[in-house]
Protein backbone atom coordinates (compact mmCIF):
# COMPACT_ATOMS: atom_id res chain seq x y z
CA UNK A 1 0.00 0.00 0.00
CA UNK A 2 1.50 3.37 -1.03
CA UNK A 3 1.79 6.39 1.28
CA UNK A 4 -1.29 8.21 -0.07
CA UNK A 5 -3.44 5.09 0.16
CA UNK A 6 -2.27 4.51 3.74
CA UNK A 7 -3.22 8.07 4.76
CA UNK A 8 -6.62 7.71 3.05
CA UNK A 9 -7.22 4.42 4.85
CA UNK A 10 -6.26 5.90 8.24
CA UNK A 11 -8.49 8.95 7.68
CA UNK A 12 -11.33 6.63 6.73
CA UNK A 13 -10.89 4.67 9.97
CA UNK A 14 -10.88 7.88 12.05
CA UNK A 15 -14.01 9.08 10.26
CA UNK A 16 -15.73 5.73 10.81
CA UNK A 17 -14.91 5.71 14.53
CA UNK A 18 -16.07 9.34 14.91
CA UNK A 19 -19.32 8.53 13.15
CA UNK A 20 -19.88 5.51 15.41
CA UNK A 21 -19.38 7.66 18.53
CA UNK A 22 -21.92 10.22 17.27
CA UNK A 23 -24.44 7.47 16.55
CA UNK A 24 -23.99 5.92 20.00
CA UNK A 25 -24.25 9.24 21.83
CA UNK A 26 -27.28 10.60 19.94
CA UNK A 27 -30.10 8.91 21.95
CA UNK A 28 -28.38 9.67 25.27
CA UNK A 29 -27.96 13.35 24.39
CA UNK A 30 -31.68 13.53 23.53
CA UNK A 31 -32.67 11.76 26.76
CA UNK A 32 -30.35 13.94 28.84
CA UNK A 33 -31.89 17.10 27.39
CA UNK A 34 -35.41 15.77 27.97
CA UNK A 35 -34.68 14.75 31.57
CA UNK A 36 -32.79 17.93 32.47
CA UNK A 37 -35.27 20.27 30.79
CA UNK A 38 -38.56 18.80 32.04
CA UNK A 39 -37.53 17.17 35.33
CA UNK A 40 -34.40 19.16 36.26
CA UNK A 41 -32.58 15.82 36.58
CA UNK A 42 -29.43 15.22 34.53
CA UNK A 43 -29.25 11.81 32.88
CA UNK A 44 -26.42 10.63 35.11
CA UNK A 45 -28.61 11.23 38.19
CA UNK A 46 -31.32 9.00 36.72
CA UNK A 47 -28.79 6.27 35.91
CA UNK A 48 -27.25 6.54 39.40
CA UNK A 49 -30.64 6.30 41.14
CA UNK A 50 -31.62 3.21 39.17
CA UNK A 51 -28.24 1.61 39.79
CA UNK A 52 -28.76 1.98 43.54
CA UNK A 53 -32.46 1.11 43.68
CA UNK A 54 -33.17 -1.33 40.84
CA UNK A 55 -33.97 -4.21 43.22
CA UNK A 56 -36.63 -2.09 44.96
CA UNK A 57 -38.63 -1.34 41.81
CA UNK A 58 -41.48 -3.63 40.73
CA UNK A 59 -41.47 -4.83 37.11
CA UNK A 60 -37.99 -3.45 36.51
CA UNK A 61 -37.02 -6.25 34.10
CA UNK A 62 -39.75 -5.67 31.45
CA UNK A 63 -39.04 -1.93 31.68
CA UNK A 64 -35.35 -2.47 30.97
CA UNK A 65 -36.16 -4.97 28.23
CA UNK A 66 -38.44 -2.45 26.52
CA UNK A 67 -35.83 0.29 26.86
CA UNK A 68 -33.10 -1.97 25.48
CA UNK A 69 -35.06 -2.81 22.33
CA UNK A 70 -36.13 0.79 21.70
CA UNK A 71 -32.53 1.99 22.13
CA UNK A 72 -31.36 -0.77 19.78
CA UNK A 73 -33.89 0.16 17.09
CA UNK A 74 -33.08 3.84 17.64
CA UNK A 75 -29.38 3.09 17.21
CA UNK A 76 -30.04 1.20 13.97
CA UNK A 77 -32.24 3.98 12.57
CA UNK A 78 -29.74 6.73 13.45
CA UNK A 79 -26.90 4.59 12.09
CA UNK A 80 -28.75 4.12 8.80
CA UNK A 81 -29.44 7.85 8.42
CA UNK A 82 -25.88 8.91 9.29
CA UNK A 83 -24.53 6.30 6.88
CA UNK A 84 -26.73 7.64 4.06
CA UNK A 85 -25.67 11.24 4.77
CA UNK A 86 -22.01 10.22 4.89
CA UNK A 87 -22.15 8.29 1.62
CA UNK A 88 -24.06 11.07 -0.13
CA UNK A 89 -21.23 13.50 0.73
CA UNK A 90 -18.28 11.27 -0.09
CA UNK A 91 -18.24 7.65 -1.22
CA UNK A 92 -16.48 5.17 -3.46
CA UNK A 93 -18.52 3.08 -5.90
CA UNK A 94 -17.80 -0.57 -6.57
CA UNK A 95 -19.61 -3.09 -8.75
CA UNK A 96 -19.47 -6.46 -7.03
CA UNK A 97 -20.08 -9.86 -8.61
CA UNK A 98 -22.21 -12.21 -6.51
CA UNK A 99 -20.83 -15.64 -5.54
CA UNK A 100 -23.66 -16.81 -3.28
CA UNK A 101 -24.20 -16.87 0.48
CA UNK A 102 -21.46 -18.53 2.52
CA UNK A 103 -23.85 -18.90 5.44
CA UNK A 104 -26.99 -17.27 6.80
CA UNK A 105 -27.19 -13.63 5.59
CA UNK A 106 -23.45 -13.55 4.78
CA UNK A 107 -22.83 -13.05 1.06
CA UNK A 108 -19.60 -13.43 -0.94
CA UNK A 109 -18.60 -11.11 -3.80
CA UNK A 110 -15.58 -9.95 -5.74
CA UNK A 111 -14.86 -6.64 -7.46
CA UNK A 112 -14.69 -7.30 -11.20
CA UNK A 113 -12.49 -4.21 -11.65
CA UNK A 114 -9.99 -5.44 -9.09
CA UNK A 115 -7.27 -7.45 -10.85
CA UNK A 116 -6.65 -9.53 -7.72
CA UNK A 117 -10.33 -10.68 -7.76
CA UNK A 118 -10.12 -11.00 -3.97
CA UNK A 119 -13.30 -12.31 -2.35
CA UNK A 120 -15.18 -9.76 -0.21
CA UNK A 121 -17.85 -10.78 2.30
CA UNK A 122 -20.65 -8.77 3.83
CA UNK A 123 -24.02 -9.23 5.50
CA UNK A 124 -27.11 -9.07 3.30
CA UNK A 125 -30.25 -8.52 5.37
CA UNK A 126 -32.50 -8.74 2.29
CA UNK A 127 -31.56 -12.32 1.47
CA UNK A 128 -30.97 -15.29 3.76
CA UNK A 129 -29.39 -17.75 1.32
CA UNK A 130 -28.87 -18.29 -2.41
CA UNK A 131 -31.02 -21.10 -3.83
CA UNK A 132 -30.04 -21.20 -7.51
CA UNK A 133 -26.99 -21.21 -9.76
CA UNK A 134 -28.93 -18.77 -11.95
CA UNK A 135 -28.39 -16.01 -9.37
CA UNK A 136 -24.60 -16.29 -9.46
CA UNK A 137 -22.23 -13.93 -11.32
CA UNK A 138 -24.73 -11.07 -11.25
CA UNK A 139 -23.37 -7.63 -10.45
CA UNK A 140 -24.70 -5.00 -8.02
CA UNK A 141 -23.48 -1.49 -7.24
CA UNK A 142 -22.34 -0.78 -3.69
CA UNK A 143 -21.09 2.40 -2.05
CA UNK A 144 -18.47 2.56 0.69
CA UNK A 145 -16.41 5.17 2.50
CA UNK A 146 -13.33 6.14 0.51
CA UNK A 147 -10.33 4.04 1.51
CA UNK A 148 -12.40 1.58 3.54
CA UNK A 149 -12.54 -2.17 3.05
CA UNK A 150 -15.53 -4.46 2.72
CA UNK A 151 -18.76 -4.60 0.74
CA UNK A 152 -20.28 -1.30 1.82
CA UNK A 153 -23.92 -0.30 1.35
CA UNK A 154 -26.24 -1.08 -1.56
CA UNK A 155 -26.58 1.94 -3.85
CA UNK A 156 -30.38 2.02 -3.54
CA UNK A 157 -29.97 3.22 0.06
CA UNK A 158 -29.27 6.68 -1.40
CA UNK A 159 -32.65 6.76 -3.14
CA UNK A 160 -34.84 9.67 -1.98
CA UNK A 161 -37.48 7.28 -0.58
CA UNK A 162 -34.83 5.51 1.49
CA UNK A 163 -33.52 8.86 2.74
CA UNK A 164 -37.00 10.09 3.76
CA UNK A 165 -37.74 6.71 5.35
CA UNK A 166 -34.57 6.98 7.45
CA UNK A 167 -35.46 10.47 8.70
CA UNK A 168 -38.98 9.37 9.64
CA UNK A 169 -37.58 6.26 11.35
CA UNK A 170 -35.21 8.32 13.52
CA UNK A 171 -38.04 10.64 14.61
CA UNK A 172 -40.49 7.78 15.26
CA UNK A 173 -38.12 5.63 17.30
CA UNK A 174 -36.73 8.61 19.22
CA UNK A 175 -40.30 9.46 20.28
CA UNK A 176 -40.82 5.80 21.26
CA UNK A 177 -37.64 5.83 23.35
CA UNK A 178 -38.72 9.02 25.12
CA UNK A 179 -42.13 7.64 26.17
CA UNK A 180 -40.49 4.54 27.67
CA UNK A 181 -37.61 6.40 29.31
CA UNK A 182 -40.09 8.87 30.81
CA UNK A 183 -41.07 6.09 33.25
CA UNK A 184 -37.44 5.74 34.35
CA UNK A 185 -36.98 9.50 34.76
CA UNK A 186 -40.25 9.96 36.63
CA UNK A 187 -39.50 7.07 39.00
CA UNK A 188 -36.14 8.63 39.89
CA UNK A 189 -37.70 12.09 40.04
CA UNK A 190 -40.41 11.20 42.55
CA UNK A 191 -37.80 9.53 44.75
CA UNK A 192 -35.60 12.64 44.46
CA UNK A 193 -37.99 15.61 44.33
CA UNK A 194 -36.62 18.96 43.21
CA UNK A 195 -38.07 22.43 43.22
CA UNK A 196 -40.09 21.55 40.12
CA UNK A 197 -43.58 20.45 41.19
CA UNK A 198 -45.59 18.37 38.72
CA UNK A 199 -49.33 17.93 39.30
CA UNK A 200 -49.13 14.16 39.66
CA UNK A 201 -46.71 11.39 40.55
CA UNK A 202 -48.04 9.05 37.91
CA UNK A 203 -45.47 8.70 35.12
CA UNK A 204 -47.94 8.77 32.24
CA UNK A 205 -49.89 11.65 33.75
CA UNK A 206 -46.69 13.62 34.12
CA UNK A 207 -45.95 12.86 30.50
CA UNK A 208 -49.38 14.28 29.64
CA UNK A 209 -48.36 17.54 31.27
CA UNK A 210 -45.16 17.68 29.23
CA UNK A 211 -46.95 16.74 25.99
CA UNK A 212 -49.34 19.66 26.45
CA UNK A 213 -46.36 21.99 25.97
CA UNK A 214 -46.40 20.78 22.37
CA UNK A 215 -50.20 20.91 22.09
CA UNK A 216 -50.40 17.10 22.24
CA UNK A 217 -52.54 14.80 24.31
CA UNK A 218 -51.16 11.39 25.23
CA UNK A 219 -53.46 9.79 22.64
CA UNK A 220 -52.34 12.29 20.03
CA UNK A 221 -48.72 11.48 20.81
CA UNK A 222 -49.33 7.76 20.36
CA UNK A 223 -51.21 8.42 17.10
CA UNK A 224 -48.31 10.51 15.83
CA UNK A 225 -45.82 7.83 16.85
CA UNK A 226 -47.87 5.04 15.22
CA UNK A 227 -48.45 7.11 12.08
CA UNK A 228 -44.74 7.82 11.74
CA UNK A 229 -43.86 4.14 12.14
CA UNK A 230 -46.44 3.12 9.50
CA UNK A 231 -45.14 5.86 7.17
CA UNK A 232 -41.59 4.63 7.76
CA UNK A 233 -42.65 1.09 6.84
CA UNK A 234 -44.45 2.37 3.73
CA UNK A 235 -41.47 4.35 2.47
CA UNK A 236 -39.12 1.44 3.26
CA UNK A 237 -41.23 -0.99 1.21
CA UNK A 238 -41.58 1.55 -1.63
CA UNK A 239 -37.82 2.05 -1.96
CA UNK A 240 -36.70 0.42 -5.24
CA UNK A 241 -34.55 -2.69 -4.98
CA UNK A 242 -30.90 -2.44 -5.93
CA UNK A 243 -30.34 -2.98 -9.66
CA UNK A 244 -28.99 -6.46 -10.38
CA UNK A 245 -27.35 -7.20 -13.73
CA UNK A 246 -27.76 -10.24 -15.93
CA UNK A 247 -25.07 -12.91 -15.30
CA UNK A 248 -21.70 -11.57 -16.46
CA UNK A 249 -20.23 -15.02 -17.14
CA UNK A 250 -21.44 -18.43 -18.24
CA UNK A 251 -21.71 -21.23 -15.74
CA UNK A 252 -19.51 -24.33 -16.20
CA UNK A 253 -20.90 -26.67 -18.86
CA UNK A 254 -21.77 -29.40 -16.34
CA UNK A 255 -24.16 -27.06 -14.48
CA UNK A 256 -27.25 -27.68 -16.55
CA UNK A 257 -30.86 -28.71 -16.03
CA UNK A 258 -31.79 -32.14 -14.67
CA UNK A 259 -28.19 -33.21 -14.13
CA UNK A 260 -26.48 -34.86 -11.16
CA UNK A 261 -23.54 -32.99 -9.61
CA UNK A 262 -21.53 -33.01 -6.38
CA UNK A 263 -21.03 -30.30 -3.79
CA UNK A 264 -19.45 -29.99 -0.36
CA UNK A 265 -21.86 -29.09 2.48
CA UNK A 266 -20.48 -26.40 4.79
CA UNK A 267 -23.45 -25.58 7.03
CA UNK A 268 -26.83 -26.87 8.17
CA UNK A 269 -29.21 -24.45 9.83
CA UNK A 270 -32.71 -24.70 11.35
CA UNK A 271 -35.49 -22.91 9.49
CA UNK A 272 -37.64 -21.18 12.08
CA UNK A 273 -41.24 -20.07 11.56
CA UNK A 274 -43.72 -18.09 13.63
CA UNK A 275 -46.86 -19.78 14.94
CA UNK A 276 -49.82 -18.35 16.84
CA UNK A 277 -49.89 -19.45 20.47
CA UNK A 278 -53.65 -20.04 20.19
CA UNK A 279 -56.11 -19.80 17.30
CA UNK A 280 -57.47 -16.41 18.36
CA UNK A 281 -54.21 -15.05 19.79
CA UNK A 282 -52.15 -12.17 18.42
CA UNK A 283 -49.04 -13.58 20.12
CA UNK A 284 -46.58 -15.73 18.21
CA UNK A 285 -43.85 -18.19 19.15
CA UNK A 286 -40.76 -18.87 17.06
CA UNK A 287 -40.62 -22.63 16.50
CA UNK A 288 -38.63 -25.21 14.57
CA UNK A 289 -40.35 -25.75 11.19
CA UNK A 290 -38.95 -29.27 10.82
CA UNK A 291 -36.92 -28.08 7.82
CA UNK A 292 -33.21 -27.40 7.47
CA UNK A 293 -31.15 -25.12 5.23
CA UNK A 294 -28.15 -27.03 3.88
CA UNK A 295 -25.51 -24.82 2.29
CA UNK A 296 -23.11 -26.23 -0.32
CA UNK A 297 -19.92 -24.91 -1.88
CA UNK A 298 -18.74 -25.63 -5.42
CA UNK A 299 -15.28 -25.15 -6.95
CA UNK A 300 -15.14 -27.33 -10.08
CA UNK A 301 -15.12 -25.09 -13.17
CA UNK A 302 -15.47 -21.88 -11.13
CA UNK A 303 -12.78 -19.23 -10.69
CA UNK A 304 -14.01 -18.68 -7.13
CA UNK A 305 -15.83 -20.91 -4.68
CA UNK A 306 -19.58 -20.38 -5.13
CA UNK A 307 -22.42 -21.21 -2.76
CA UNK A 308 -25.92 -22.60 -3.30
CA UNK A 309 -28.41 -23.72 -0.63
CA UNK A 310 -31.22 -26.26 -0.54
CA UNK A 311 -34.05 -26.77 1.96
CA UNK A 312 -34.72 -30.27 3.26
CA UNK A 313 -37.63 -31.68 5.25
CA UNK A 314 -36.60 -33.85 8.20
CA UNK A 315 -39.55 -36.16 7.56
CA UNK A 316 -38.27 -37.08 4.09
CA UNK A 317 -34.52 -36.72 4.70
CA UNK A 318 -34.26 -38.22 8.18
CA UNK A 319 -31.93 -40.96 6.91
CA UNK A 320 -29.48 -38.41 5.49
CA UNK A 321 -29.21 -35.98 8.39
CA UNK A 322 -26.33 -37.89 9.99
CA UNK A 323 -24.59 -38.17 6.61
CA UNK A 324 -24.91 -34.41 6.01
CA UNK A 325 -23.41 -33.58 9.41
CA UNK A 326 -20.62 -36.09 8.88
CA UNK A 327 -19.75 -34.62 5.47
CA UNK A 328 -19.72 -31.10 6.92
CA UNK A 329 -17.20 -32.25 9.54
CA UNK A 330 -15.02 -34.18 7.07
CA UNK A 331 -15.39 -31.73 4.14
CA UNK A 332 -16.62 -34.53 1.85
CA UNK A 333 -18.79 -34.01 -1.23
CA UNK A 334 -22.37 -35.21 -1.64
CA UNK A 335 -24.42 -36.11 -4.71
CA UNK A 336 -27.02 -33.50 -5.67
CA UNK A 337 -29.71 -33.11 -8.32
CA UNK A 338 -30.34 -30.01 -10.45
CA UNK A 339 -33.85 -29.04 -11.58
CA UNK A 340 -34.90 -26.92 -14.57
CA UNK A 341 -34.29 -23.67 -12.62
CA UNK A 342 -30.86 -24.86 -11.44
CA UNK A 343 -32.01 -25.33 -7.86
CA UNK A 344 -30.21 -28.13 -6.05
CA UNK A 345 -31.76 -30.94 -4.02
CA UNK A 346 -30.49 -33.91 -2.04
CA UNK A 347 -31.87 -37.19 -3.46
CA UNK A 348 -34.07 -38.98 -0.93
CA UNK A 349 -32.79 -42.32 0.30
CA UNK A 350 -35.51 -44.62 1.59
CA UNK A 351 -35.01 -47.32 4.22
UniProtKB/TrEMBL annotation:
Keywords: Membrane, Transmembrane, Transmembrane helix
Source organism of this protein record: endosymbiont of Galathealinum brachiosum
Record protein name field: Uncharacterized protein
Transmembrane segments: 21-40, 60-85, 160-185, 219-238
Top-level taxonomic group: Bacteria
Amino acid sequence: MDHDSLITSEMSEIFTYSRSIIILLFPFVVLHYYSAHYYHLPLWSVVKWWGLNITKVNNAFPLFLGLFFTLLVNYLSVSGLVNILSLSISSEQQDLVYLGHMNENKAAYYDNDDLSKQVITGYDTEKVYNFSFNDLYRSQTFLKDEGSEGVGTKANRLHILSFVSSIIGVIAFTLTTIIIFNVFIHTAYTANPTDVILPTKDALSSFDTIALNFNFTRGGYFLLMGGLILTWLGFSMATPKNNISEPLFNLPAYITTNKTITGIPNEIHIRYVKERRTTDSNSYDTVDSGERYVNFEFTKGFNHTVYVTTLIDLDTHANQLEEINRNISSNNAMTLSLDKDLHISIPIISN
